Amino acid sequence: QRGVEIRGLSLVRDMGLQVFHAGTALKDGAVVSSGGRVLTVTAVRPSLETALQAANQGAAAVDFPGAVYRRDIGHRAIAHLNQNRGLTYKDSGVDIAAGNKLVDIIRPLAKATSRPGCNAELGGFAGLFDLKAAGFVDPVLVSGTDGVGTKLKVAQACGQHGGLGQDLVAMCVNDVLAQGAEPLFFLDYFSCGRLDVGVASTVVSGIAKACEAAGCALLGGETAEMPGVYAPGEYDLAGFCVGAVERAGLLPRLEDISEGDLLIGLASSGVHSNGFSLVRKVLERAGLSYSAPAPFGRQDQSVGQVLLTPTNIYSRLLLPVLRSGAVKAYAHITGGGLLENIPRVLPRELAVELDASRWTIPPVFSWLHAEGRVGEEEMSRTFNCGVGAVLVVAPVDAQRVLRQLQVHQEAWVVGSVVHKQPGVPAVVVRNLTQSLLNVGGASSGELEVTNSGCHGNSITPHKRMRVGVLISGTGTNLQALMEQAKRPSSSAQIVVVISNRPGVLGLKKASLAGIQTRVVDHKLYGSRAEFDGTIDRVLEEFGVELVCLAGFMRILTGTFVRKWSGKLLNIHPSLLPSFKGVNAQKQALQAGVRVTGCTVHFVAEEVDAGAIIVQEAVPVMVGDTEESLSDRIREAEHRAFPAALELVSSGSVLLGDDGNI
């Protein structure tokens, strides 16, 4: 029939298909039939099967009276292809090319985790580690494996996969530390139904960064694509860590633990990676989605964001303490909570008493306790309740260890070792319910332990040392010092920031932090002595007891340095006494050294020559430029300077009359 309107052509175009006209005409602005074979619908797709399916859908969308179209086009060709073409692995759901692409993405990430003993080169059948090159003499190997539990479900529901790598590494590395071992290398296992390279690379990138933070090499791993085993979008993770410890340094030292020893708790970052099945059940009962504003945590965070806070990695913090010999035992508070993990490192005849009012409990635990009506015993058996790890130390060592930890992490004396009474649990947690209900009212950490009697456990407030910071620029080291001083456990209080240049970013950072600022422009003074005298008067005005030079680009006079001797700290981007003066990074590269770093030292009249307080080594990589090396040294500075600030402000480090520490 001629002259009937043809409908649905715009819909076909929207489907991305081509329409070729034959027996059609335009009439009054509409497309009408003009007899014969009216039109064809053509589809171009990656395969004949999908092209045929799309063309048929397009033909079905065209509508006019009497319209018919052939439905048998291409079927014999498809049947022929299916009969003669051999199956591939990809036909079964496993994409080898995608797996290879993932390896190419993660290869440089793994390489960045190289350390003495291992170059972290992926691609071999197995990974190698040289214990002798790592400096071990009589080592015992220590291994651990773990996953992240149903925290995976939260990450997958939120589409936020970046933090799981740190969770995985932390769970394994923190376990290996319990034997006193240094984590050496890590392997991961990633399994899924269909490999999403974007998701997998995000997860493995997080693993690599966490390995770097933990000081272990990402030596290898396995990506398993298993169609039919996992639902779309689901995957699972497992990690494996191998460490080593000199035989004489193995923990726990059960024979040394005795009644009266003290327990030091290290702060957790939140739920860590245990108890998420219970967390999800509480959320389900409360009708709370992961995207909802969190009734716990910061006001700008969603429920999912708080729950996905990565697990703390304790290796770099704890290894120096463990090697000092002061720690008799270490317990990682994972599945089983406080009640089941601490007894694993105690002699059978001993128990512990904890006081929950001594540490800060994150709000998420208070909410879970109240909303889920989770009992006190269940809370302490399932969750860490704010304590990610526990150290057992002698009372005489408690203050020194606590101070050393508090430089980088909140830590508290949380209890003591007691004789185990018949019928009494190995772990008793006092004041937990009260502390959960009174979140924020627990000890802020602004306490110090002083030895008193046999228990050495008297708690007294401590006075903070008043600190002035001198800057000349952006204030990156200033920011690190301010963050340290904000910790409730810090012994330092920054009371003024002085710049010799007006309008620099560091002044703005200080003002935003609520710290008084002053500008003493060196260009306005006729002599260095006059300039230094003005700075000295400002410091005196604010009652400053300790001065930190954080990127202060002026040489101070001998008079100023002598007055502030023992109270004046500077940081230099090399391992002094090497590479003094300007362009230290360039000097290191030109010298061809394999290791450089940063040094925090007391200021002496000779430039870069005062007594050394803290140093941190930074490896020089092949292909390093001044810029890349400077970036890594700057990261080390942001750790070393706050550490030195705490050591001096707490009185742990003093400058002697002989100019030595």
Describe the protein in words:
The chain has 661 residues and is α/β, with parallel strands linked by helices. It has 4 domains: 9-84, Alpha-Beta Complex (Glycinamide Ribonucleotide Synthetase, Chain A, domain 4), CATH 3.90.600; 96-249, PurM-like, N-terminal domain (60s Ribosomal Protein L30, Chain: A, 2-Layer Sandwich); 254-461, PurM-like C-terminal domain (Phosphoribosyl-aminoimidazole Synthetase, Chain A, domain 2); 465-649, Rossmann fold, CATH 3.40.50. It has 21 helices and 23 strands. The protein has a 7-stranded mixed β-sheet, with helices on both faces. Strands 10-12-9-13-11-14 form a 6-stranded mixed β-sheet. The model is unreliable at 440-462 (pLDDT under 50).
Structural domain count: 4
Classify the oligomer: single chain
- Poorly predicted ranges (pLDDT <50, ≥5 residues)? 440-462
The fourth-level CATH homologous superfamily of the largest domain is PurM-like C-terminal domain
Strand content: 15-25%
Residues in helices, as a percent range: 25-40%
Distance between the termini: 104 Å
GO molecular function, one term: phosphoribosylglycinamide formyltransferase activity
Pfam families: AIRS (PF00586), AIRS_C (PF02769), Formyl_trans_N (PF00551), GARS_C (PF02843)
Subunit structure: Homodimer.
Keywords: ATP-binding, Ligase, Manganese, Nucleotide-binding, Purine biosynthesis, Transferase
